[in-house]
Write a structure and sequence with these properties.
By secondary structure, the protein is α/β, with parallel strands linked by helices. Helix content is about 30%, strand content about 35%. It has a single domain (about 5-175), classed as Trna Endonuclease, Chain: A, domain 1 (3-Layer(aba) Sandwich). Strands 1-2-3-4-5 form a five-stranded mixed sheet, with helices on both faces. The longest helix is centred in the middle third of the chain and has 15 residues, at about 115-130. The chain is globular and about 60 Å long.
Length: about 190
Protein backbone atom coordinates (compact mmCIF):
# COMPACT_ATOMS: atom_id res chain seq x y z
CA UNK A 1 0.00 0.00 0.00
CA UNK A 2 1.30 3.45 -0.93
CA UNK A 3 1.88 5.91 1.95
CA UNK A 4 -0.62 8.36 0.44
CA UNK A 5 -3.32 5.66 0.75
CA UNK A 6 -2.99 5.57 4.55
CA UNK A 7 -3.59 9.26 5.24
CA UNK A 8 -6.54 10.92 6.92
CA UNK A 9 -7.29 12.58 3.58
CA UNK A 10 -7.71 9.23 1.84
CA UNK A 11 -9.91 7.96 4.69
CA UNK A 12 -12.09 11.05 4.30
CA UNK A 13 -12.57 10.18 0.62
CA UNK A 14 -10.16 12.60 -1.04
CA UNK A 15 -8.93 10.80 -4.15
CA UNK A 16 -5.59 11.99 -5.49
CA UNK A 17 -5.10 10.65 -9.02
CA UNK A 18 -2.03 12.92 -9.41
CA UNK A 19 0.15 10.69 -7.23
CA UNK A 20 0.61 8.31 -10.17
CA UNK A 21 1.29 11.04 -12.73
CA UNK A 22 4.98 11.90 -13.21
CA UNK A 23 4.02 15.45 -14.21
CA UNK A 24 2.96 16.06 -10.61
CA UNK A 25 6.47 15.33 -9.31
CA UNK A 26 7.98 17.40 -12.10
CA UNK A 27 5.67 20.33 -11.29
CA UNK A 28 6.71 20.21 -7.63
CA UNK A 29 10.38 20.20 -8.61
CA UNK A 30 9.84 23.02 -11.11
CA UNK A 31 8.02 25.18 -8.55
CA UNK A 32 10.80 24.66 -5.98
CA UNK A 33 13.53 26.12 -8.21
CA UNK A 34 14.94 29.55 -8.95
CA UNK A 35 12.71 32.52 -8.09
CA UNK A 36 9.44 30.56 -8.16
CA UNK A 37 9.26 29.84 -4.37
CA UNK A 38 9.68 33.54 -3.61
CA UNK A 39 6.99 34.43 -6.17
CA UNK A 40 4.55 31.91 -4.66
CA UNK A 41 5.44 33.08 -1.15
CA UNK A 42 4.79 36.74 -1.95
CA UNK A 43 1.62 35.91 -3.88
CA UNK A 44 0.14 33.88 -1.01
CA UNK A 45 0.92 36.42 1.70
CA UNK A 46 0.16 39.64 -0.19
CA UNK A 47 -2.93 41.28 1.22
CA UNK A 48 -2.73 39.53 4.59
CA UNK A 49 -3.48 41.82 7.51
CA UNK A 50 -0.51 44.02 8.32
CA UNK A 51 1.65 42.52 5.57
CA UNK A 52 4.55 44.85 4.73
CA UNK A 53 6.56 42.79 2.26
CA UNK A 54 8.40 39.52 2.03
CA UNK A 55 11.66 39.24 3.92
CA UNK A 56 12.61 35.99 2.32
CA UNK A 57 12.15 32.30 1.88
CA UNK A 58 14.35 30.30 4.17
CA UNK A 59 13.47 26.76 3.16
CA UNK A 60 11.43 24.84 0.60
CA UNK A 61 10.30 21.29 1.41
CA UNK A 62 8.80 18.88 -1.09
CA UNK A 63 6.15 16.32 -0.04
CA UNK A 64 6.18 17.32 3.61
CA UNK A 65 4.22 14.92 5.80
CA UNK A 66 1.61 16.66 7.94
CA UNK A 67 0.58 14.83 11.11
CA UNK A 68 -1.56 15.31 14.19
CA UNK A 69 -1.15 13.62 17.55
CA UNK A 70 1.95 12.19 19.20
CA UNK A 71 3.55 8.76 19.51
CA UNK A 72 1.14 5.87 19.06
CA UNK A 73 -1.68 8.39 18.50
CA UNK A 74 0.03 10.09 15.57
CA UNK A 75 -2.06 10.21 12.40
CA UNK A 76 -0.83 11.33 9.00
CA UNK A 77 -3.15 14.03 7.68
CA UNK A 78 -1.59 14.20 4.23
CA UNK A 79 1.45 15.32 2.27
CA UNK A 80 1.96 18.99 1.46
CA UNK A 81 3.28 19.13 -2.10
CA UNK A 82 5.46 22.17 -1.52
CA UNK A 83 5.89 23.95 1.80
CA UNK A 84 7.72 27.26 1.69
CA UNK A 85 9.01 28.55 5.03
CA UNK A 86 10.15 32.10 5.62
CA UNK A 87 9.43 35.27 7.50
CA UNK A 88 7.42 38.39 6.85
CA UNK A 89 7.30 41.88 8.28
CA UNK A 90 3.97 42.87 9.79
CA UNK A 91 2.84 46.27 11.00
CA UNK A 92 1.45 46.27 14.52
CA UNK A 93 -1.52 48.42 15.58
CA UNK A 94 0.82 50.88 17.31
CA UNK A 95 2.66 51.48 14.02
CA UNK A 96 5.71 49.37 14.89
CA UNK A 97 6.84 46.67 12.47
CA UNK A 98 7.84 43.23 13.62
CA UNK A 99 9.00 40.07 11.94
CA UNK A 100 7.20 36.74 12.25
CA UNK A 101 7.53 33.32 10.73
CA UNK A 102 5.17 32.37 7.93
CA UNK A 103 4.64 29.36 5.75
CA UNK A 104 2.99 28.87 2.41
CA UNK A 105 1.30 25.59 1.52
CA UNK A 106 1.36 24.92 -2.22
CA UNK A 107 -0.93 22.23 -3.60
CA UNK A 108 -0.31 21.03 -7.17
CA UNK A 109 -3.13 19.59 -9.25
CA UNK A 110 -2.32 18.08 -12.64
CA UNK A 111 -5.62 16.35 -13.40
CA UNK A 112 -8.90 18.29 -13.10
CA UNK A 113 -10.52 18.18 -9.67
CA UNK A 114 -13.42 20.09 -8.19
CA UNK A 115 -12.71 23.37 -6.45
CA UNK A 116 -14.60 22.13 -3.38
CA UNK A 117 -12.11 19.29 -2.96
CA UNK A 118 -9.22 21.75 -3.20
CA UNK A 119 -10.78 24.03 -0.58
CA UNK A 120 -11.49 21.17 1.85
CA UNK A 121 -7.98 19.75 1.47
CA UNK A 122 -6.19 23.06 2.00
CA UNK A 123 -8.41 24.06 4.93
CA UNK A 124 -7.59 20.75 6.60
CA UNK A 125 -3.87 21.32 5.99
CA UNK A 126 -4.05 24.88 7.34
CA UNK A 127 -5.86 23.72 10.47
CA UNK A 128 -3.04 21.32 11.35
CA UNK A 129 -0.06 23.28 10.00
CA UNK A 130 -0.53 26.15 12.46
CA UNK A 131 1.60 24.40 15.07
CA UNK A 132 4.65 24.83 12.81
CA UNK A 133 4.36 28.49 11.76
CA UNK A 134 2.31 31.44 12.96
CA UNK A 135 1.16 32.65 9.54
CA UNK A 136 -0.01 30.42 6.73
CA UNK A 137 -0.73 31.28 3.12
CA UNK A 138 -2.14 28.86 0.56
CA UNK A 139 -1.73 28.51 -3.20
CA UNK A 140 -3.10 25.95 -5.61
CA UNK A 141 -1.18 25.52 -8.87
CA UNK A 142 -2.94 23.67 -11.68
CA UNK A 143 -2.09 22.30 -15.10
CA UNK A 144 -5.69 22.98 -16.16
CA UNK A 145 -7.72 26.17 -16.32
CA UNK A 146 -10.19 27.21 -13.64
CA UNK A 147 -13.24 29.34 -14.25
CA UNK A 148 -13.54 32.85 -12.83
CA UNK A 149 -16.19 31.48 -10.45
CA UNK A 150 -13.77 28.79 -9.21
CA UNK A 151 -10.98 31.34 -8.71
CA UNK A 152 -13.34 33.60 -6.75
CA UNK A 153 -14.42 30.66 -4.55
CA UNK A 154 -10.75 29.94 -3.78
CA UNK A 155 -10.00 33.62 -3.10
CA UNK A 156 -12.97 33.89 -0.74
CA UNK A 157 -11.31 31.38 1.62
CA UNK A 158 -7.78 32.76 1.29
CA UNK A 159 -6.42 30.45 -1.41
CA UNK A 160 -4.49 32.00 -4.29
CA UNK A 161 -4.45 30.44 -7.77
CA UNK A 162 -1.60 30.04 -10.23
CA UNK A 163 -1.33 28.04 -13.43
CA UNK A 164 1.52 26.02 -14.86
CA UNK A 165 2.32 27.79 -18.10
CA UNK A 166 4.18 26.95 -21.26
CA UNK A 167 7.54 27.43 -19.50
CA UNK A 168 6.73 24.41 -17.32
CA UNK A 169 6.10 22.17 -20.32
CA UNK A 170 9.31 23.37 -21.97
CA UNK A 171 11.19 22.63 -18.74
CA UNK A 172 9.66 19.11 -18.72
CA UNK A 173 10.91 18.51 -22.25
CA UNK A 174 14.44 19.50 -21.22
CA UNK A 175 14.26 17.03 -18.33
CA UNK A 176 13.78 14.18 -20.82
CA UNK A 177 17.17 15.03 -22.36
CA UNK A 178 18.99 15.38 -19.03
CA UNK A 179 21.67 12.82 -18.27
CA UNK A 180 20.75 10.40 -15.49
CA UNK A 181 22.29 11.11 -12.10
CA UNK A 182 25.12 8.93 -10.89
CA UNK A 183 24.24 7.21 -7.61
CA UNK A 184 26.45 7.90 -4.60
CA UNK A 185 26.79 4.16 -4.05
CA UNK A 186 26.49 1.28 -6.47
CA UNK A 187 25.29 -1.97 -4.90
Amino acid sequence: MHSHDRTLLSKLGFADPDKKDRRHDLACQYLSQNERPLQLYAMALAGKEGYQGTLGCERVVLESMLTKGEGQYAVTIGFIDLWIYGSIRRKHDDGECYQSDAGVIVEVKILPVGVGDIIRQLKLYRAHAGRYVSGIGMVVVTAFDLTDTDVEALRSVGIRYAGLGEAFYEWCERQKDAAPAKPALML
